[in-house]
Design the sequence.
C-alpha cells in the first residue's frame, strides 16, 4: 500500500490534473472577454485592437495639444511678470510638470504608433 506523505506531492498531482483538464479542449472554459461574438473561443478581433489603438493615439495627440496650449499660456504669463515675482517660480513649477507629462504622452504616442505600424 502506497501513501503520499508529502503535501507537495499532493499539490503536484492535483496541479497536474488541473493542468491536464485545462489543456483538454472539451473541458476548457470560455473567456467571453477574449473572443469574437461569431468566432472561435480565444481569438481576438484584430481590427478592434487596431481601432482601439488608433483611438488611443488620437486621444493622446489631443491631450498633448491641450498641454502644449497650457504650457504656452504659462510661458506668456511668466514673460509678463517681473523676474523677481514669486509667481514666476510657481509658474515654472507648473511648466515643468506639464513638460514632463507631455514627454510621457509623446513616448506613449510613439509606442502606440509602433503598434499600429
Sequence:
Amino acid at each position: 500500500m502506497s501513501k503520499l506523505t508529502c503535501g507537495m506531492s499532493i499539490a503536484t498531482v492535483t496541479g497536474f490534473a488541473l493542468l491536464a483538464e485545462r489543456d483538454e479542449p472539451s473541458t476548457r472554459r470560455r473567456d467571453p472577454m477574449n473572443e469574437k461574438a461569431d468566432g472561435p473561443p480565444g481569438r481576438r478581433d484584430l481590427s478592434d485592437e487596431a481601432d482601439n489603438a488608433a483611438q488611443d493615439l488620437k486621444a493622446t495627440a489631443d491631450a498633448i495639444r491641450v498641454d502644449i496650449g497650457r504650457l504656452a499660456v504659462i510661458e506668456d504669463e511668466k514673460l509678463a511678470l517681473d523676474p523677481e515675482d514669486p509667481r514666476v517660480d510657481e509658474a515654472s513649477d507648473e511648466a515643468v510638470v506639464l513638460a514632463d507629462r507631455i514627454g510621457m504622452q509623446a513616448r506613449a504616442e510613439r509606442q502606440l504608433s509602433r503598434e499600429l505600424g
Remarks:
- Helices lie at 7-23, 46-80, 86-116.
